Amino acid sequence: MKLVNETVVIDGIDKTILNFLMDDAKKSILEIARNIGITGAAVHQRLRKLEKAGLIEGSKLMINPRLLGYKTMAFVGVYLDKAVSNPQAVKQLRQIPEVIECHYTTGNWSIFIKILCRDNEHLMNVLNKDIQAIEGVSRTETFISLNQQINRQIKI
Amino acid sequence: MKLVNETVVIDGIDKTILNFLMDDAKKSILEIARNIGITGAAVHQRLRKLEKAGLIEGSKLMINPRLLGYKTMAFVGVYLDKAVSNPQAVKQLRQIPEVIECHYTTGNWSIFIKILCRDNEHLMNVLNKDIQAIEGVSRTETFISLNQQINRQIKI
DNA sequence: ATTGAAATATGTTCGTA
DNA sequence: TACGAACATATTTCAAT
Q: Which of A36, A96, A103, B16 pairs with A74 at a CA distance of 20 to 30 A?
């Protein structure tokens, strides 16, 4: 494992370990080790290196938000006035719990966000009350995800 | 915990457990138990119920794809010919490893996808070779994420 | 970088309340 | 639901190669 051009170079064993855990973070080190044909201690040591390299950002339990009543996902393109500090707008977006992604993007929108709401009424409230209240937001363009067909991490 | 309108009703303890694990899937049951003030066995039992209810979809190790050379994230609105079967297009999108999300959406686009590429050249190849090759794709509109500022799950 | 073994911590089950 | 105790697995460390 080496640093080349701000990139971490990993070998095939590292990839195998990461792919296993990216699929299931609770897969045991020993099980992974048996699959590869090395000992648990070796896998453990590699994982420590990958963590130290900053490659591993943590692990998350994935839940199905629909079953908790969050049934409306939407994408929102946000137009910001030129005069406004974009970081300030992002700071305020962070305060809105329904905002789960936020990107600076090329194109007409200044900021592009993904939001998760209970229903369309909840979405309307977030758009009209929370997001429109942010200083510098001139208007928004919203499209709703009717159905998410693919949701995965990159296969490395 | 009850099923009401296809929704799982959970109590505050369940929420605490889930929020801990959604933030860090490897946090130990015992540590969570100590935080709540119940035993590990009780937390364990609740987790089994939440799993049985289908609320838990698994756990994922999160990595920083930038450090592996994946530095260009983009969103692509896809226009599909009316005649074409959308599920067929999704099936082909699934074959493209760079496609990490795919949604049916309201608005002008039929399908909206998120893709992760090494660089702009790689992105161009995916767009021009892989995505344009899909039957029924008439044109696409792409915008690049210059910087992702927020990336999180919903706080329950 | 990898091993085997030891020590520690955690997950899991179960009878009982 | 929750508890506590017993048991089974997993993680973590380390000296040696």
A: B16
pLDDT digits (tens, 9 = 90+) for A56-83: 999 999 999 999 999 999 999 999 998 7
Per the CB < 8 Å rule, is A62 touching B73? no
Cα–Cα distance, B89 to A124 (Å, whole number): 31
pLDDT at residue number B84: 81
Digit-coded pLDDT (tens) for A22-37: 999 999 999 999 999 9
CATH T-level fold of B2-52? Arc Repressor Mutant, subunit A (1.10.10)
Whether the Cβ atoms of residue A148 and residue B102 lie closer than 8 Å to each other: yes
Q: For residues B33-54, give the mean pLDDT.
A: 98
Nucleotide nearest to A31 (CA to C1'): D10
Is the separation of the CB atoms in A55 and B64 below 8 Å?
yes
pTM (whole model) above 0.90: yes
Q: Would you list the DSSP string of A116-131?
A: EESSHHHHHHIIIIII
Q: Which residues of B touch A22 (CB under 8 A)?
A: 60-63
> Closest residue by Cα to the C1' atom of nucleotide D1?
B42
